[in-house]
Amino acid sequence: MFSKNQSQTEFIILMASLMSIVALSIDAILPALEAIGITVGTADSTQNQLLITMIFLGLGCGQLIFGPLSDSIGRKPVIYIGFGVFVIASFICVTAKSMELMVFGRILQGIGLSAPRTISIAMVRDSFSGDYMAKIMSFIVAIFILVPVIAPALGKLMLDSFGWKSIFNSQLIFGLFIMIWLWKRQPETLHPKNKIRLSKSLFINGLKEFIKFKTSIAFTLISGLITGSFMVYLSASQEIFQNQYGLVEEFPFIFAALAISVGFATFLNGTLVLKYGMYKMVRAFMIAFTTIPILYLLFFYGTTNPSVYILVSFFGLQFFSIGFLFGNLRSLAMQPVGHIAGIGAAINGFVSTVMAVPIATYIGGFVKNTASPLFVGFLICGSCSLMILGMLKRIVKTTSLSTS
User: Are the beta carbons of 369 and 199 closer than 8 angstroms?
Assistant: First the structure.
């Protein structure tokens, strides 16, 4: 739903900007993890990874609150509430004197940010459906990926110039600008006839409706597996490139190059998905996602890290596959539940994130001397995803035969 003077392009950029607050809060602090750890009294790199993984825990849990609430009171008010929580959490982070308080602040940041992250997806589903929705989501994600491209470099610049606290302050300024833009330019997308009365049973009824659709469940589980494997990279990339390879100054640029790989694939998906359809795209690139780590492990498992150029090449191919998966998986999961888009986005986001956090935490604990555990994680998550796709295909085939 657009205002009279709002174009589809502006809607896409605004939705991408709402998602980008999340990316900025995660990726900009990557170069500062060691400095933050020293401030709060820890030098353990695996402990520092909690500052990345724990924000995802908040993102997952917060969606259960804000998603159903948005189906009742509207999309925009819920985003404003979430941003208010994010502001409070950011102040906790910049004043934290212990790792425990910093982790609490990061979880609370995630809870607050779950509102713009979840509701932006619900707003897209309010406005579009089918493969065209996947196309719009692809363009949104392609723009959103620009933030991970520049965020680590921006974070490194601010860290060197003003200290790590300035990174958190910049996120607040960026978020405030987006909130004003949303308030001034974006009309409410939830149609009054689709509002659901706020009640204790709102979420339970929504959950019952969501689990009726086997495709929504299957693609939500796959999203959790893919997100978990990617989250390992997000939390361990600083350890790999800065500590294992000693590329402290080069790290932001390597991170940016790999983010471009994801973004380019996502942009291509916006065109190809209309030709081939979401399911075929997911199946093809799930196979690629699973094959790439097999090749890496055949050559390098049990050995020291290869040349950084080889590692970045394998990462680039892996993330190129991911670029074709993220938007399509979310769109496939949301397609049957447009009538409960807020609750549907919340359940999808909660399940996939709650799956992803333990996957990332467990696998990340093995990334100490080599990057191989990361590719083991990619292989396991990819194999499980292909199994789920196979089971879904058999279920859908059986259902079609029984109803024919």
Answer: no
